Amino acid sequence: MTIVMRGGQIGGGDSPQDNVPTQPPRNNPVPSPNVLPESDGSGDQDEGVDLPEGQEPDFPVAELARLDEMINRPRWVVPVLPKGELEVLLDAAINLSKLGLDTRSEACQRFYRDGLTISFTKILTDEAVSGWKFEIHRCIMKNCEHLVQLCVLKLNQDCLPLLELLAMVLNPNSKFHTFNGTRPSESVPTGSQLPDEEIFARPSDLRTPKGWLVDLINKFGNLGGFTLLLERFQSDNAISVPVIAALIRPFGMCHDLLTVHTIEKYFMPIVEIVPTFLDNLTDEELKKEAKNETKNDALSGIVKALKCLAAKVPNQETTVKNLETFRLKMILRLLQISSFNGKMNALNEVNKVIASVSYYTHRHANPEEEDWLTAERVAEWIKENKVLQIVLRDSLHQPQYVEKLEKILRFVIKEKSLTLEDLDDIWAAQSGKHEAIVKNVHDLLAKLAWDFTPEQLDHLFECFQTSWTNASKKQREKLLELIRRLAEDDKDGVMAHKVLNLLWSLAHSNDVPTDIMDQALTAHVKILDYSCSQDRDSQKTHWLDRCVEELKIDSWVLPALKQIREICNLYSEAPPNFNHAQRSPHMFYRHEVINRLQQHHSLVILVADNLTAYMKKAHVLAKEHPDLDPNSVSPDSRFSHVQQVQERLNFLRFLLKDGQLWLCAPQAKQIWSCLAENAVYVTDREACFKWFSKLMGEEPDLDPEINRNFFEENVLQLDPCLLTESGIRCFDRFFKAVNSKEGKLIAKRRAFLMNDLELLGLDYLWRVVLCANEDVANRAIELLKETYTNLGPRLQTSQMEIHEDFVQSCMDRLRAAFDTITVIEGDKDSVNRVRQETTRMVRILKVLREYVGQCDGDYGEERSILPMARAHRGKQLSLTIRFSNQGRSFDDTEVWTHMNDTLGAVRRQILTRVKANNVNMKVDLFVNGELLDPADDKKLVSQLPLRDKMIISAKLCQIGTNMPSSPDSSSDSSTGSPQHPFDGPNVEAENCLPGVLMSQQQGYAQFLFQLADLGCNLNIPALRDEAHAVLKLMPPDTHTYEKLKTICLENSKMGEKSSSPSLESIFYATSSSEVLYTLEVVYTLLMPAHNPMSEEAQSFQYNFVRSGGVPVTLGMLTKNNFLSNADVPTKRAAYLIVLKICKLLLTTVGKCIVQVETEAISSRSSPGSLSPSSPNSVLTGKIAVLQQALTHIPNPNSEFMLRNVSARLAQLLHDQVM
């Protein structure tokens, strides 16, 4: 920021010498490089020069370019010295203006618009003005005189940029004139007595005469400026409002320095001309002027300038008053035209008037000094001319428009002239309008409402209620938002009180949709929450009591309950270590508020009674409308039946939980009775079950002292058929809670241990198993199994007796049902009863199966007495074991196993193969990088992700060391890990398992055959399958097992002389289930899971073949009377076993034939005489085919064990025959 002068640079930097530019000299004939011929204003230069049409006159464009570059630098420079670029350009412009050629020069016009304007703006108004030396200011003054000369020359051409610069030059408050305010005038020297007629301006204050400004004004007058100004207004040439403003504005600013004579001669005629001109403008012309107006204060500026000028002349009070009146008249006209810009400008004018009267009201202490236009007169003008009504007609969707309206309204409110009719007009302006208008008007009212009188506020609320009746849903939402906002930040509580009452009233309207009612109540709570009132706690208490009153009169129950809960939730919960003695006297916690309600109103009893009363009404309604859907809203209510019940229950739970209250016996029984026992709909009972389940959670809300009584007198009295899944969950929680309190169950982590066989509710649990629907019964079976398989310390020693009693209990129940069916089976009228009994039998069998399976699963050791399902050898697998490098070289080891083997057995086999006999050694196995958990050692291979020919990674490690064998391996003490691989099975403990105990009782298996056959006969697959499933879980029945071994042994030894039944007879028994079971036992004896090559297995294999096993087995495949009465699933299972047996026997027979025939041929021929023509060559065909087939059948890869067994058995049979 710099002013350029030759020999020294002055600018707006930190020091006057900043930014010294270097300029090359120009080739001019004059000594100074910057000097151009200076105009002296005499007009003798080129006066007669006429330029051809279209030719542009000369203009110093080089100087213009340099000026533009200098003033547009970041640290600008303005060359103000004599013959500097600015003065040169001004002189050139003056010369062209005198010739009337400046308008034909594009460079000159650009100079007016840019270079000239920017230069004078900087040198007159910049903060750097105060840092320049006196000679610089003298240079600036000289440039200002040149500018005044140029403005006078262009005065009659309405050049707005120059008129704006003239206003800047004559502005007494500019930085330049303020800094030089004490300079004396040269045109009016101090002490001179020049008459007003000879001068145009004189200093008005001796202390700050502003002499340079006086000189500029006088220069303007001496150049004929005032004469030209008056002539412009008196001429017939068209003039616009912006031009009028630009012409008058400079002199309105410096009116204090103008002489009275100057004003009277030149401006008083203008004061008369301008209002007349503006008043004669048509609406269209005024609209156009308003639309084209670039500034918003033109009209205000014109009147203000004229008023300042007229006020300087004595006895012109009437003129000033007329000007003010005229100003208001023009503003009103602008307001009434439809143009948005016009309205905005008019609003700006109104606000300027308001600001001026407000300012003067505070400024003047003496009423005689006040202007004629006062705040009272402006307020009266607004009212008489219905300014508010005009403004409210349109444009309310524009936020800036409403913002200006707000200032007017605040003024009217302040002057106490806002009427109730005005309020009606404001409210009507948004009614039914676009949401943008609604939002703007609502925002406006929310801001203004705090300044309303009580009467106005009441009237506004009446408007709200009137609109509420006919408003749409969306309009009501907007209205609620406005109402809520009115109460925010209310310190005194007056507004909040009114709004709360209004919202309460609106929420009670019968025609209001439920969601709108909810919004009203939500707003109600928010106001209570945000209330800044000193008595906000008593305010909340008041509304809590109002809600309780609604509950008592049973008219508005659910909203009242919701509101109580929401208001209570405004209070925080007490901290865990809450101490009443330490509580602040002004601090209330939620449970204290709820306790107060309980003490004063017995709220729990009140809600329970209300629920009972409602259910009685619901019973009546259901009888009148039997097709009524409980989920649909009833015609005379806002809520469905389900909501009516659920909301009351939810509220009760809230009171109990957050209020730290116990539900007492009378209310618990009352709720159970009306919802569970006397339910109107299924949903009532379901809600009741779920509610009581939550009550009996980890932190129960039901009084523990009444648990047993309630359980026995209410829960156990409910018909089991009515239980749902929620119902059995409810029973489960009561069952465990009551028995735990009685010491019959012991809580341990997430499980309960049974410590007493006489459990409360056990008989009812059996009734649920037998009578409830399928899903509920399954959950009851699970609970029964969970209870009996988790024994406490006191019952651990009686485990075997408990197993026997439980199994016998199941068998007794099965026998009773079986006998019932046997009696009524033939009765056609008893079909449903038969179905019912068979269903019960299926469930009892499922209980037995789940119980036996769980006990087997909990048994943590290796089994030697295997269940039937895994007692035979399964499909063979070959696994390749690959050890990681542990400093000890191991070749890949191939391990043979089968589907019914366990993972623990595979581990033992691996340790044996690698000769790891150290008792502290264990092997970790990995499949695809995943550790096979030692806890799964009891699982069968078929239950693991193992496949034939799979490669398994292995790692040996020490038991008990802290070094893990792999990142994922578990320690030796993992839950469920087996005992050491070299320890034998615990047969004594195994004999205590329920499945083993059942296999040792002859009658159990036989009875299960009967049940399975009954299922086949009655075509009830579930009964058949459950009976088979229980048999599969039991080890082979001891009686059947020994019977088969005895028959085969005696028939093998005695042949036809044996007194034992024939082998064939046992496979053609009348019971198809028994035949299937016998076949399974036979295959288990032939191919036991543990070791089919054992002596015991070999003995039975031999005796079975010798007792006619081969023809008997083949007969089963060929005869029609085998299982002729069995159903298809039983036949399918039996034939599968027969085929497995046939595979072993036929392979054995084939090997025998090959061996016998080979030896027979060999014995008939002498050694060394074999030739292609010998008898051996003739027989080789049949033997070779068979022998060749036996090399591939059975599959050598997958039937390795079967081939070994058959080869050994064939050899044994051959040796016995030979």
TrEMBL record:
Q: What biological-process GO terms show up in the record?
A: proteolysis
**Which portions of the chain have biased composition (kind: Acidic residues)?**
41-56
- SUPFAM superfamilies according to UniProt: ARM repeat (SSF48371)
**Signal peptide location in the record?**
none
Which keywords has UniProt assigned to this entry? Hydrolase, Protease, Thiol protease, Ubl conjugation pathway
Pfam families according to UniProt: ARM_UBP24_USP9X-Y, UCH_UBL1
Q: Tell me the segments the record calls region Disordered.
A: 1-57, 962-986
What InterPro entries does its record include? ARM-type_fold, ARM_UBP34_24_USP9X_Y, UBP24/USP9X/USP9Y_UBL
| Residue ranges of domain UBP24/USP9X/USP9Y ubiquitin-like in the record | 872-958
- Provide ranges: composition bias, Pro residues: 22-34
EC number(s) per entry: 3.4.19.12
Substrates-to-products reaction catalysed = Thiol-dependent hydrolysis of ester, thioester, amide, peptide and isopeptide bonds formed by the C-terminal Gly of ubiquitin (a 76-residue protein attached to proteins as an intracellular targeting signal)
Domain of life, per the record? Answer: Eukaryota
User: Domain UBP34/UBP24/USP9X/USP9Y-like ARM repeat region spans what residues?
Assistant: 321-739
Q: Where is the composition biased (Low complexity)?
A: 964-974
Entry GO MF terms: cysteine-type deubiquitinase activity
Bilayer-spanning residue ranges: none
Q: Which family does it belong to?
A: Belongs to the peptidase C19 family.
**Under what name is this protein listed?**
ubiquitinyl hydrolase 1
What species does this protein belong to? Araneus ventricosus
